[in-house]
Amino acid sequence: MTELVHTRAALAKVRDGLPGAVGVVMTMGALHEGHEALIRAARERADHVLVTIFVNPLQFGPNEDFDRYPRTLDTDLEVCRRAGADVVFAPSVGDMYPDGQPAVRVNPGQLGEDLEGLSRPGFFHGVLTVVLKLLQLTRPRLAFFGEKDYQQLTLVRRMVRDLDVPVEVVGVPTVREPDGLALSSRNRYLSPEQRRTASGLSAALRAGATAAEEGADAGEVLAVTHRAFADVGVGAELDYLVLTDPELEPGPVSGPARLLVAAWVGGTRLIDNMAIRLAPRS
After folding, report:
1. Which one is catalytic: 6, 35, 48, 226?
2. Which of 130, 138, 164, 202 is close enough to 180 for a disulfide, judged by CB 3.0 to 4.6 Å?
3. pTM, entire model
4. Short-list 49, 198, 63, 204, CA closest to 122
5. Crossing angle of helices 218-230/192-213, nearest 10°?
6. For this structure, is 35 an active site residue?
7. Which residues contact 217 (CB under 8 A, 6 or more apart)?
8. What is the pLDDT of residues 86-143, one digit of tens each?
9. Could you please report the per-residue DSSP string of 9-32?
């Protein structure tokens, strides 16, 4: 049985009654199989699983889709029940930010200003602020985040480490459609034709990963990935395509690495990434 609570007071009362290790899965709702995989991963490692559903206004820019972002609480609760969540915390904006927009926010540092942060100024200030607040409210031992939002996962890990937050951050592999498209709540904005175009993002990443497996160096892998993205054709506009080390640090890359892409397909902005391994530099 999954219990739904909406207020801090109700959450605190329920949380106090959860013995053992608590795992938290933070979402903005519009849950899909990717979120279900997060909840199931939490179910495997934690004694109790707590899911948060909150569309956080702090991480939306003035021209982004906060107002049209899907709110599907009834359907989301069914996903949570099916995956084995014990508690769902679905607060209002007023309950999360009782004093209005917070004057103090988490500064993500330089990493938060690159990639997604460069395209969406202030985005990670909002993400890390709400994540830290939810960690304080839910008091988990484990927190589960999807690798699809890889920069977010990396920054949450860094925040937890730098600020000595007593929680283990667990990354869960990206769940994909049969054609390779990474599951995202924003996929529902795509027309059938746009959806076929969007699958080209993962196809480009796979091309780069294959090149790496065949011994290509970092420059060659990136060039192959760019060419594969160009083959997607009309309908996809590239925002960024980069190859970095697993911690998203600048500098030469060899060994474990990460390809990350962001692109507009119609009016929908999509992101994806893939782990690869480069041959040692000679």
Report:
1. 35
2. 202
3. 0.94
4. 63
5. 160
6. yes
7. 278, 279, 281
8. 999 999 999 999 999 999 999 999 999 999 999 999 999 999 999 999 999 999 999 9
9. HHHHHHHHT--S-EEEEEE-S---
